[in-house]
Each structure stands twice: as structure tokens, then as C-alpha cells.
Amino acid sequence: MFPRRLVSIALATGLVLAGAGCAKDDAKSDSAGAASTLKIGFLGSLTGTYQAVGTDLKNGFELYLSLHGNKLGGHPIDLKVADEGDGAQTAVPAATKLVKEDQVIALTGIVGGGSVAAVAPLLSQAKIPLIGSNGRPELKDLNGVWTTSFMSSDPGQSVAQYIKDKVNGPVFAIGPDYQGGYDEVGGFTTEFAKIGGQLANTGGKTLWTPFPQTTNFLPYFSQIKSSGAKAVYTFYAGKAAIDFVKQYKQSDIKDVPLYGAFLTEGSVLQAEGDAAKDVFTTCNYSPDLDNEENRKFVAAWRQKFPDATPTTYAVASYDAAAVLDRAIAAAGSNVTSETINEQVGKLGQISSPRGQWQFGKNHAPVQKWYLRQVRNDGRALANTLVQDLATVGQ
Q1: DSSP string of 200-229, one letter each residue
Q2: Where's the Leucine-binding protein domain (predicted)?
Q3: For residue 18, what are the CA distances in angstroms to 13, 22, 353?
């Protein structure tokens, strides 16, 4: 159970509590019925390889706040921001500050699956819920751990059948050597093998590249060439995705179809330029999805960030704010870490720019995935929606 962690409240002018010395810092009463200010922690990669991803997470959450008067559930929000960096080594001390010094009532964000795994015990001990907004690995203890994005294995799982049907021959699997890479690429290879697909890799084992130090992928492309692969599946994001895609189109395997997760998502597409043309990606969001929530979201995003394309990262973080908004409102006058966690579990359907979704038993979305391909959209490149893939979740 989560113990009660009540937020600090600004007292009305002139109101003094008798016996204030006996009052607890973390359990004060509302004054004159005014809604208390809640401290929400945001942890994301604001520097390092995944800076672009972390920035989109932050922008998505802040966009929701700006559209709702900087309030969630009727409460003003004091957003405490910390830098996750490149992984657990920097994520844990940053999260520790948010928990112990800033005393946030809930935490959101987190780019890396390895960071989630490392931070989760800290949050569990402090009894603070995590409404994560990027990939998440499998965890034994799910109490208080939610994600509005996906399980890290979901993207690969969603596209495995499509690739099996379209590619006439073995597929080469390659990815970064860390927890997020294992989960992301493993989602594909596990499902692909289950449905009878064959990997071109030696011994049927995924090729892992050192992370984050790998910037030259050409030696790995030589291995792919010699394998006789008819397609490649991978996962890279941020700067690593830019390096991978640019070098891929300069290599001897440039004509081998390239499939992946997040290779061309967000600002990296502009940096990749024409090298990204024809790349296929699986994603739970596309800016051209035709639904009312997406039209509103895209319009608001483009007004605030006219030079940036809305991304799945931004949508997941926007949805994390929406989840907190509803959960805090449902908690009524008793807003604690415990009641927020309880109410998140009762939310049911979430109306999102990506379409309707809901939390599954694993505290991650049950949602539809889409196949996209980089094509010219007028004078600009875009991740163009090709077709629906599978609905993934449990």
C-alpha cells in the first residue's frame, strides 16, 4: 500500500494555524477551500544521446499543462525537472533528488528502459507512483509503476508478422547493447521466431553494438552484407539513429529494406534528410491519424512548436499529463501518492491523439500500432501512414 503523502499548501492571507509546531510538513489542510499546489517530478534525457527524445517528453507534458491553465485535477502544478542523462548512472541520483529533496507526489517521463528498472526500487521504497512516458522493461513489482507509452518489446512484436509476410528470406537483427536495445529488438526476434521467421545473424543471435559509444556502423553493415539478409530490423533513437540511417544509405546494403522502431521519429528525421527515404518504422502514433483528439493536439503543438513535428514521445507524455489530470480529479480532496496510484488503476478508456487506449494488466497501454514509411509530403519528408498493424497489450 502507498502511505499518505499530502501536498504542502499555501495558506490564505492572514490565516494562522494554532499549534503549527505540531503540524506535519507533508500533511496540511487546504485553506479557505483553495486547491493545493502539487509537486510533480519530470525525469528525462535533456542531455546525451537521447536528448531529442527527452526534450519531446518534456514538451508534450508542458503542452498539456499550458492547455489546462497549468493545473491537473484542478490543482496548480509545480513541475520539478531533472536530467536523466544517458542511463541509470545519472538517472538514479536525479530521481533521488526529486524524491528526497523536492518531495514530489508523482513522477513522470524517463526515456530509457534501463533507467526505469534502476529508478523503480527507489520509487517503490518512497511509495511514489511513476507515470512513465517512454519504453518500459518487464518488472516483477508493478505496484505504482505505469507507462502511457508501451512495453519496450511492443514495437517489434507489432511488426513481426508484416515483415514475415513481406520479406522473402532471412532478416538481420541489430541493436544497441543495453537494456532498452535488448527489449526493443527482442520483441521482434521473439515474435518473428514464434511465427516461423528466420534470422540471417550467425547462430540466430542479434548483433549488439556498444552503447552509447558506437558512432561508426559501417563495420557492422559489412557483416549484414555477408549474411545474405533480405531485410534488416533494428532499434535506435536520437543521435544513434541519425548516425545509423545516414551511414546505412552510404553502405553496400543501402538497397536492403530497413525496418525499425523510432529510427526516423521526431527531429532526427530532419537531420537524416534524404538518407531516411523509404525507411519503414512501426509506431503507436502518426501525426496524420484522423481523430478529433489528434487534430486538437497537432494544432496546439504546431502553434507552440512551429518548427517541430509532433512525435510519439510527445503524445505519450501529453497522455501522462492527461492520466494524472483525471486521477488527481478523481482523488477529490484526499490527493496523496496513494490515492493517485489507486485512481490511475480505475481510469478505463483514455482518449488520446493516437486513438482510444487503456491500461492492461501489465500497467502499459493496450493499443493499436501502425506501419509508416518515410516519403515526401510536399517539399518535406514525413513518416507517412501506410497501414494498421496489430493491437498489442495484455
Answers
A1: -SGGG--EEE-TTT----HHHHHHHHHHT-
A2: 37-378
A3: 15, 9, 49
Dist. CA 220–CA 196, nearest whole Å: 25
CA–CA distance, 229 with 255 (Å, rounded to integer): 11
List Cα–Cα distances, 284 to 107, 218, 332, 385, in angstroms: 23, 30, 32, 11
How far apart CA 144 and CA 161 sit, in angstroms, is: 33
Helix (H) and strand (E) counts for the chain?
11, 17
The answer, yes or no, to whether residue 330 has pLDDT greater than 50, is yes
User: Cβ-count burial of 74 within 10 angstroms (0-12 exposed, 13-18 middle, 19+ buried)?
Assistant: middle
Unique residue bearing C-alpha cell 534501463 = 114
Q: Break the chain into its structural domains and give their ranges.
A: 20-149+291-363, 154-283+370-392
Question: What string of DSSP letters covers 23-74?
Answer: SBTTB-PPSTTPPPPEEEEEEE--SSTTHHHHHHHHHHHHHHHHHTTTEETT
Give the strand pairing for 71-72 and 75-83.
antiparallel
Two domains, one topology: 20-149+291-363 and 154-283+370-392:
yes
In terms of DSSP bridges, do strands 106-109 and 130-132 run parallel, antiparallel, or are they unpaired?
parallel
Give the span between the Cα atoms of 273 and 276, in whole angstroms. 6
Q: How many CB atoms lie within 10 A of CB 371?
A: 21
Query: Distance between CA atoms of 340 and 336, rounded to whole angstroms?
Result: 6
How many Cα atoms within 13 Å fall on the side-chain side of residue 60? 35
Residue 28 corresponds to which cell in the numbers above? Answer: 496540511
Distances 341 to 131, 187, 208 between C-alpha atoms, Å: 9, 28, 37
Identify the architecture of domain 154-283+370-392 in CATH. 3-Layer(aba) Sandwich (3.40)
pLDDT of residue 35: 83
Cis previous bond, 76, omega within 30: no
* CATH level 2 (architecture), domain 20-149+291-363: 3-Layer(aba) Sandwich (3.40)
Calculate what percentage of the chain has a pLDDT beyond 70. 91
